Amino acid sequence: xxxxxxxxxxxxxxxxxxxxxxxxxxxxxxxxxxxxxxxxxxxxxxxxxxxxxxxxxxxxxxxxxxxxxxxxxxxxxxxxxxxxxxxxxxxxxxxxxxxxxxxxxxxxxxxxxxxxxxxxxxxxxxxxxxxxxxxxxxxxxxxxxxxxxxxxxxxxxxxxxxxxxxxxxxxxxxxxxxxxxxxxxxxxxxxxxxxxxxxxxxxxxxxxxxxxxxxxxxxxxxxxxxxxxxxxxxxxxxxxxxxxxxxxxxxxxxxxxxxxxxxxxxxxxxxxxxxxxxxxxxxxxxxxxxxxxxxxxxxxxxxxxxxxxxxxxxxxxxxxxxxxxxxxxxxxxxxxxxxxxxxxxxxxxxxxxxxxxxxxxxxxxxxxxxxxxxxxxxxxxxxxxxxxxxxxxxx
Length: 395
What we know:
395 residues, alpha/beta, Nucleotidyltransferase, domain 5, 4 domains, 4-stranded antiparallel beta sheet, 12 strands
């Protein structure tokens, strides 16, 4: 409140004649507020004109202190266990406890508690979930997603095969192996199928243990699936979002494993994986399926089944070209020149062409995967012109 306004309030309170309407208009205040200050001055003197808090005397919807403490405790326990510990998960656990029945705050309320207690780290640059294009199988066993990840035990690096049901998010298998071979992938898949039944289809990346499609041959894992009537499908190269459900599962698994002691070997690691899968399927709410338990969603649907007849095997005849890379970094295939880079000059390249898609493999490494422009012979690399020269592999 300005000094002039205070003087006017005192003058009116003391009985002096003041044009209140003109005064209020000049200071941008209402007559109601002005006379409220006059009343306060008469009761309390100048202290009555000091700014007061607008906080209400009571807030019936305010979260109680004991619930705030429980939110913080749950956050700490879930984080130490290596499990999701956001506001959504914390509210889910509160709702399942009879102790807090009828007093569970909203997700927004839990989030405000975490912010107030300094337990939330702002991530303004994080990509919003609404920007992703989602897909989901309509029934259990309609499609499984499979992938492999590295993990470290006391004896060194091992591999873990993970399989997720696309519809229910049930972890149907998580198996530790010494090497990620196609035979080990099939053994893991068969083990899961014996428990959960065989799926109608399987989605994987283009790892050699899962598929040889980009290399012009068929590996054991995909050949056996086709014989069993199970549709094989792979994501496009360099696009892990296609198998995003199993990729996300592996992030959660790694977070959980880091909170536990280093396994001595494969057997101890497998025991940890089995424990995690039980928690993941039976005790952990899954936000991707609206906080349901994966096992409950599995039991709510009728599992799909593979086809009664085998799926046709691919024919690579006439689609495979083998030529050396020229000094200019070009490889010839199907009357076209595909640029792969001068760093591969002199190397033997295998080019696989499927209609308008081409894949270039050199020394077992995927070098390019491109859409062909049939209106031109030269297929550019798409690299920006200029920049540092790349070393050639041959002199």
